[in-house]
Specification:
- The protein is α/β, with parallel strands linked by helices.
- It has a single domain, classed as Hypothetical Protein Aq_1857, Chain: A (Sandwich).
- Helices cover about 20% and strands about 35% of the residues.
- The strands form 2 sheets. The protein has a 5-stranded mixed β-sheet. A 3-stranded mixed β-sheet has the order 2-7-8.
- A hairpin with a 2-residue loop joins strand 5 and strand 6.
- The radius of gyration is 17 Å and the shape is globular.
- The N and C termini lie far apart (about 40 Å).
- The N terminus is likely disordered.
Amino acid sequence: MAVATMEQTEFLTLTQAAADKLAAIMTEKGVRDTHALRVFVSGAGCSGLQYGMGFDANPRQGDAMCEQHGLRVVMDPVSLQYMTGAHIDYVEDPTSGGFQIENPNAPPACDQAQAGGAGARGGCSSCR
């Protein structure tokens, strides 16, 4: 991994639970020592920003990089604009488990999405 081309900064927070789960998945896939966790914005719409995570062996020039709980984390410059200060946790209950991202920079969802549908107005402009 070409760390010299990436900005090293703390741009998000991984909880210990999230880091432990990610490390277990990476170990299971055999990529724990060779890949970084890539976190990104994958889209936006009425319900707000959508996020993605994956494992990346070749971070790109311009990516931001940090290390949290022994995991390398990378993010592209566009996602960084939207996700700086985000908090990633892993939560399990008796019926399910999953990653949760709390983002203080996320734009609010439109009132149509919060109301549960398009309603009489036909949805917000980004959904038409």
